[in-house]
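tool=predict chain=A
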Amino acid sequence: MATIAKLCELGVLEDLDPGLDPAELPTRQLYGTVEFVAWLNDVLPELVVEDDPLSDDLSPMEQVGALFSEYLLGETFSTDRRFKKLNATPQHHIWELKTPDVRIFGWVPAKDCFICCYGDLKNAVVTFNKYGLYMARTKLVRDKMDLDEPKCVESREFKDVIST
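tool=predict ok
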């Protein structure tokens, strides 16, 4: 079994840095799987959102960068929709980071730490009802990962997974 730091050393996970200013100190941790980082670098920059009155003025890439910065810098997430526990039976303990146009699926291995596993445009997730697919795929990645137990925080309470 390995720690998150060891999995980063081995290249299984990558520390996600949205380009914080040197004076900004993160209060939370954010990681991505190799597959997620490839999506972040190769797919996300090319994504565009068709004219949608509910869409943000920012591109999907800019939205994700802002969301990651806000998460890392310790902004309050427990009372809004940017961070959401997904429901499933049986309980899979999968969480979702959200922007107006992007959904990012992952899990919380420890309080104030999030591992990003999959990302997609909101419209694709909702239109094709991909929530179950992404929850199952995220759980499978977590189960296969050689991460120390417990591999995730098994709580539905925001106070247990993120500081406010």
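The beta strands are 13-15, 29-33, 83-85, 95-98, 102-110, 113-121. The radius of gyration is 15 Å.
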